[in-house]
Amino acid sequence: MGARSKNRASTAKSDSSEHAALDKESIKQDFVDNLFYVLGKFPSFATDQDRYQALSHAVRDRLLQRWVSTAATYSENATRTVAYLSAEFLLGPHLANNLINLGIYEATEQAIKELGLDLADLIDAEVEPGLGNGGLGRLAACFLDSLATAQIPAYGYGIRYEHGIFEQQLKDGWQTEKTDKWLRFTNTWELPRPEWTVEVQLGGHVEHVKNSDGSLRAHWVAEHTVLGIPYDTPILGYRNNTANPLRLWRAEAREPFDFSQFNHGDYEGSVAQQVETETITKVLYPNDDSVQGKELRLKQQYFFVSCSLQDMIRITRRHGIPIERFNEKFTIQMNDTHPAIAVAELMRLFIDQENLPWDQAWEVTRKSLAYTNHTLMPEALERWPLALFARLLPRHLEIIYEINAHFLNDMRVRFLGDDAIIRRLSLIDESGERSIRMANLACVGSHSINGVAALHTELLKRDVLHDFHAIWPEKFSNKTNGVTPRRWIAVANPRQTKLVNSAIGEDWITNLDALRKLEPFANDAGFCADWAEVKQANKRQLAAYLRQKTDIEIDPESMFDVQVKRIHEYKRQHLNILQVIALYIRLRNDAHFDPTPRTFIFGGKAAPGYHIAKLIIKLINSVAEVVNRDPAVRGRIRIAYLPNFNVKMGHHVYPAAELSEQISTAGKEASGTGNMKFQMNGALTIGTLDGANIEIREEVGAENFFLFGLTAEEVENVQRNGYRPYDYYQNTPELREVIDLIRSGFFSRGDPDVFHPLIDNLLRHDPYLVLADFAAYAECQNRVGLAYQDRKNWTRMAILNAARSGKFSSDRTIADYCREIWQIAPVPVKLMQKEQIEAGFLVKR
User: Fold this and answer.
1) What are 79-123's pLDDT values in tens digits?
2) 677 catalytic per annotation
3) For the packed helices 573-589 and 770-788, what is the interaxial angle rounded to 10 degrees?
4) Is 807 a catalytic residue?
5) Can you give the pTM of this predicted structure?
6) 10 Å Cβ neighbour count for 182?
7) Choosing from 8, 138, 374, 614, which is the catalytic residue?
């Protein structure tokens, strides 16, 4: 045995092989070996990307032992398993998170330092996976982390997008979209599983043939068959042996190359099928303004759902479980309506492929599926034109018609003579262009329906899904969202993590309620001083990051007032910038006005086809251009827009923020999760009574939350009584001055037309009551500024906000799902030793 082997044998402790050892020397040696033997690079010629990949391979080796052990445990026990279906998984970078969950961050940092390198540079070199866009995808990622940490058997199922939604760049203040090439350096963390490839059919027609008993059997004659290739990424739990798979599907043509066409000189035609097929998983959320865009989105959704359900059936059969007991093996959660086609597809697989009778197939389907709703806006509930559906999924249309017929027959008896409710409940919308209501399909085909915040769930019951709640009140429950403290404190905010650990220990990392132990420290002068210094260090770090990304200089001594989220009218970034303009005008006009110095930080993407949202981005940047150059307000206010906001940027932003902008129109935001990330990192919230803001305020106390604006009920009353936004413009001098300054072209280099559509929309329509809430918002912001001047009390409030964030851990959310919807318990995984793994090769299959 060589010196290296002897050393590893003595330090590996409970690990089964040298590739799983967690000590510094083993990590260092594997890093060096990977640089040579995996990447073929001499150290002096290696880039940070090479070094990142060498280290990530070393870390992945340590994950794989846990992954194999997890798979073996689940296989041996035929465990009940959660299948989380989501069109998005906004994972963020893997390396730092895996180092922390493995418990080897410090050892790795020291190993890399001894090689003359900085671990932070290697972590920064990782390209973030472009598998999600906003809160929906980030929630799914948090849930996977919590499932593994709670040792719950689970699969995440989604799409392996070759490109993310887009890389946002700013040109003259306008958003421009560039291709997000996140896979350009490959993805170290995934493993392709071609042996589990499935076939997915599209188009064609349905033939009905007679069985020997005279009954009819449907036979789908597809026009195209697409291959679904699975790629697995292990999602590791915190300091345990569980590593659950995230299984993502890539589309591939059955015959990628047509030799006949090629030989006849049709070179483009010879690869046309491959190009068309691979387009399915080419990009996250294609623009669906066109018919082609709608068709591609429907293809994407059906593709990943069909692949995933076929995979679940394969696993069920492999475990020897009869298909009629499928729901005992898998409990499937549909993350919004994107996977709602699962209702029809599971029925198709059970009836056409597994030969189950209709009634039995329907019972198993409903017992298997559960639906999470993420929106209160009816226009955001997916509908697919009937003609498109018929062309792409003819067999599913037949099944949906059949489901609808059974369902409505029952409802006609229940609601005798009430044709209006029958029309509302129908899976088919007959008004205007006939379409399929995917939310209705999800409700009918599920055993559980949940909202994601207390207010959201109540409004679902009362309004959006009122009719379904009237039929099945027992199906409805609330599961307030949460985020993982591993990613959003331990990874993102190591300074705060170290300080909290020194005060109360590390239990909070897996039990966030333990942060309540911090409350007494809010009155401890020494701890408060340390907390304030942590925040200031994070602010200095963000200032340097902003300077690097935008060339904008900001003052770390100013208050950091932050709004980072998807750009949408209901999230009201324009309310924020209108108030900034009002502050700017007052500073210019009143020599005695001396407000708290502030840096206003914005970030987020607008959908490519959403013109008003893109105009809001332009307005923010145009105001920044004027304000940041004006010497009269220098040192008082500064505005920065972070382009291409993502998880990596969030690691810098959330720990540095002092004021969290959660200012959506009451009754429009389902939950929000950014509000929770800010709170955990000690930011105070200015917000409306909307989404999870309500519950955050309940937890932290009204005195530690800056509340303004109309309630959801008041919003409804205003709109019901005929909202006249122009009246607010006329009757609010400060607002009128702001609007007039924008209209004059002051922020658009003298061109009054640039922002005309946005201003016209506000004065004539203002669907999200920006003008109605402006005065209350401006007054509340004044209170914020005054409160910030008492820095000691502000720090006290910040500590209490973080200390009372326990409810908003995704660990709590997942525990609620496990107990109340999934009926599933933890399955601890025992780490397989080398001898056990080797013995597995000797077992006859």
Assistant:
1) 899 999 999 999 999 999 999 999 999 999 999 999 999 999 999
2) yes
3) 60
4) no
5) 0.95
6) 18
7) 374
